[in-house]
Amino acid sequence: MKEWAASRWMPRKLILVSNRGPYTVKNVNGRRQVERAVGGLVTALEPAARSLPTVWVAWAGSPCGETSCSPDEVSEFAWEQVTLTQEEVDKYYGGFANQALWPLCHYFIDKCRFDRSHWDAYTWVNKKFALQAFRHTTGNSLIWVHDYQLALVPHYLRSYGAANIGFFWHIPFPPPDVLGILPWCREVLRGLLGSDVIGFHVQQYVDNFLRCAETLLNLNVDYDRGVVQYHGRSIRVVALPVGIDASTYAALGKRSDTLEAAAAIRQKVGTGMVALAVDRLDYSKGILERIEALARFWARYESYRGRLSLIQIAAPTRSAVPAYRDLRRQVEEAVGRINGLFGREDWVPVYYYYRSFPQHELAAYYTAADAALVTPLRDGLNLVAKEYVATRQNDGVLVLSRFAGVVEELREAVVVNPYDADGFGTKLKAALEMPAAERRRRMQILAERVKQRDLEWWLGSFITLLAGKETGEVLVKRIGKSKRAVAKLSGELLEEAARA
Ligand code: ADP
Ligand code: G6P
Q1: In which band, very low, low, confident or very high, does the pLDDT at 295 lie, cut at 50, 70 and 90?
Q2: Residue 41 CA: which ligand 1 atom is closest?
Q3: Which of 126, 40, 63, 10 is nearest to 383 (CA)?
Q4: CA 473/CA 456 separation, integer angstroms
Q5: Which ligand lies nearest to the CA atom of residue 318 in the structure?
Q6: Which CB contacts under 8 angstroms, 24+ apart, belong to 174-181?
Q7: DSSP bridge partners of 54
């Protein structure tokens, strides 16, 4: 921030507000351990935080009492932790956010649990976040709130007198007949409408939101311009799919240490072909369905036994929520069963890693993989698909679910229905047997598109909408420099965590 103060033009202060912060602080046997958080949101926001004078208001990632967490020295930007009690975490995060909104927005209605006390905690914690963020506002600061855990924050901020409020919803937004199932659907919509600009990944979610505003709140909506009239204000609603730091992945894919690590992965697996999947261990990701589809594939196409292995990397997530604990058990059982059924002395069908990897190691897995299987049952966007494409550049095949938001941008992928195991197998075979020239052609188109709409494009576009061209341009210029620092720091932190 000192650097900014010395410059001629003072950029506007950015107040980022998200539930998940850039790092998770854990207390391991009395020792404070800091780990980089996993997930699309953090991946997307960190470069912005390093590029404008930023205060990032977020939860520390583990329940802490008043004293056990303190602001961290690892981040260059100001990271202010919102302290939540165990009960608040259980009800607001484990309860309403992840047992009501998350399953509902991903169309898993049977997994939804609507509980009044969870809703009460959600409103209370949203207020807490809003108050803490509001304390940082100055005359022309920008506030950018993120995701479904904090849908009410824009409303509270506005009621305290704040302005220049942006919101980005990182998961699918359902149509009125699905959102309408939620007993507090109107409050959630009104909460979001405290914003000036609301972003979603794809046009379908924008349309769903506009229809919800019209039918559930009786508001005036302009579908062509993407505008909702609310309390005398015009709220812009836009589709802006999050981008990735494409140039860093492209560079990683070419580095000699990545190529060596990729060769070592292939040698360890020992098969002619490697398929890769990288996800948080979330039921929306279709991990179980994918593993079962592969089992069907090996049963059906004998020649692929001993010739194709799947590497499934699953990052731990939300393990206090019963559905996630159940999923972990089911996935581990399925991997054990399938390896027992098909495995041979010289061949392991499924390699399963339940942990996080630093970016450069993920890049080695991307480089080693003949095919990436990104086959969620429902996904707001999916950054892993973009990371694979950006790393490979001109080889490899992307097998992509038609229910991932990113399919709108990555149409040259081999598109599958993850619910249809046989159809999945047929398409997978075609993908693995695709002529090399066709594989390269598709991958080059995909890589170019990922590069065009990268992270800088996304951050610059949203900030421009919220704050005007000048601030958007300054942000984009600064990102290049800061993202190198992020990559280095992330690697170091994970290595440190692994050693601990
Ligand atoms: P979501 O946001 O639902 O987790 P995305 O695919 O959009 O899904 O984003 C996931 C992000 O987390 C990507 O940047 C990906 O590289 C990262 N990630 C996923 N699994 C792992 C893992 N096991 N280790 C490290 N990073 C991971
Ligand atoms: C998705 C959500 C994010 C969330 C991330 C990781 O990307 O959109 O809001 O941070 O998953 O989940 P977690 O519950 O660990 O924050």
Answers
A1: very high
A2: 2
A3: 40
A4: 10
A5: 2
A6: 174/104, 174/105, 174/107, 174/208, 175/208, 175/211, 175/212, 176/208, 176/211, 176/212, 176/215, 176/216, 178/104, 178/107, 178/109, 179/104, 179/208, 179/212, 179/216, 180/212, 180/216, 181/104, 181/109, 181/112
A7: 14
Q: Count of alpha carbons within 13 Å of 415, Cβ hemisphere only?
A: 11
Residues with CB under 6 A from ligand 1: 38-40, 43, 278-280, 313, 315, 356-357, 362, 381-384, 387
Question: Which tokens go with 369?
Answer: 């993989």
pLDDT given for residue 202 in this prediction: 97
Nearest ligand, CA 284? 1
pLDDT at 481: 57
Burial class (CB in 10 A: 0-12, 13-18, 19+), 109: exposed
Residue 472, pLDDT score: 76
pLDDT at 71 over 50: no
Rounded Cα–Cα distance for residues 84 and 58 (Å):
10
Element (H, E) at 309: strand 308-315
- The residue among 32, 104, 105, 102 whose CA lies nearest residue 62 is 32
CA 413/CA 449 separation, integer angstroms: 12
- In order of 154, 215, 403, the CA distances from 212 in angstroms are 18, 5, 21
pLDDT, residue 70, reads 44
Ligand 2 touching residue 147 (CB < 6 A): yes
DSSP 346-378: TB-SEEEE-S---HHHHHHHHHH-SEEEE--SS
